[in-house]
TrEMBL record:
UniProt organism field: Streptomyces roseolus
Gene Ontology biological-process entries: methylation
Highest rank taxon of the organism: Bacteria
Top-level EC class: transferase
InterPro entries per the UniProt record, alphabetical: SAM-dependent_MTases_sf, SAM_dep_MeTrfase_SAV2177_type
GO molecular function: methyltransferase activity
Protein name (record): SAM-dependent methyltransferase
Methyltransferase keyword on record: yes
EC number: 2.1.1.-
Keywords from the UniProt entry: Methyltransferase, Transferase
């Protein structure tokens, strides 16, 4: 076993996999995952809505001609990973995955099953070091052409909002006009049913890794400063491109670099 893998403390990538119905998790992940459900019963719906958002957004962007995707905070391979969705529309799509969890690294081969005309690559890197991510992505992607920069359920692990904004700015400065920023992020906002996240996140931060934070609508919207938000703007990720769906306490939005 990779000696960075700890089985004595719950890891986000594995608990997320548990909530999605996957098998790549340990007893400690399932125990913490079940406790979080007791505080925030709809967390499984959040995880599924987040993945469905990924599917709708990547299908749409690939359909509009985007051929390069930088998916940071990839998570464990599951159904309809970014390259599968993108290459279904555009077999020549190029995808770079980035995560810092050692268990995701051990499963990276499953993320590297590109269609013949396209490319997928996996980079073991930390979102706190966006310059390294840009350098590694530039080995695979043509950074003079549009890129969809995706961070789904990731900036919530960057505790400082100014740092999270700075990560977004560094990444978006490295890609040209016509590129996209795709984000999802949990919230406590009651309008989206987020109240349960408060106790769930407090429990998480005492028992699991990495620490997590929620953000308000304004904080989430600020990540898109300088970008043009695609309709319908900042909404529950469940409702982006599916206006009738029940909301979950996770914002989703897509911005285009002008
Ligand atoms: C909630 S999961 C989301 C997975 C996937 N993006 C999705 O939406 O289904 C968050 C992922 O971010 C990864 N992650 C957390 N902090 C990170 C960091 N500082 N750098 C890179 N990846 C990180 C975790 O390992 C985990 O796989």
């Amino acid at each position: 076993m990779n000696d960075r893998i700890r089985t004595d403390i719950a890891h986000n990538a594995r608990v997320w996999n548990y909530w999605l119905g996957g098998k790549d998790n340990y007893p400690v992940d399932r125990a913490v995952g079940d406790q979080v459900v007791s505080f925030h019963p709809s967390i499984g719906e959040v995880a599924r809505a987040d993945r469905a958002f990924l599917g709708r957004v990547v299908t749409r962007l690939a359909g509009e001609g985007v051929r390069q995707f930088l998916d940071i905070g990839t998570g464990l391979p599951t159904a309809d990973n970014t390259h599968e969705v993108a290459q279904r529309v555009a077999p020549d799509a190029r995808i770079v995955y980035v995560d810092n969890d050692p268990i995701v690294l051990t499963h990276a081969r499953a993320l590297l099953t590109s269609s013949p005309g396209g490319v997928t690559e996996y980079v073991d890197a930390d979102a706190h070091e966006p310059e390294k991510i840009v350098a590694a992505a530039g080995e695979v992607l043509d950074l003079s052409r549009p890129v969809a920069v995706m961070m789904l359920g990731l900036l919530n692990f960057v505790m400082d909002t100014d740092e999270a904004r700075s990560i977004v700015r560094t990444l978006m400065a490295a890609v040209p006009s016509g590129s996209y920023l795709v984000l999802t992020h949990p919230t406590l906002e009651p309008e989206l049913g987020g109240e349960g996240n408060k106790a769930a996140m407090a429990f998480w931060n005492e028992n699991a890794t990495p620490p997590i934070t929620a953000r308000t609508r304004e904080e989430f919207a600020s990540f898109f400063d300088g970008l043009e938000l695609l309709a319908p703007g900042v909404v529950s990720c469940a409702r982006w491109g599916a206006p009738e769906a029940p909301a979950v306490a996770q914002f989703g939005a897509v911005g285009r670099k002008p």
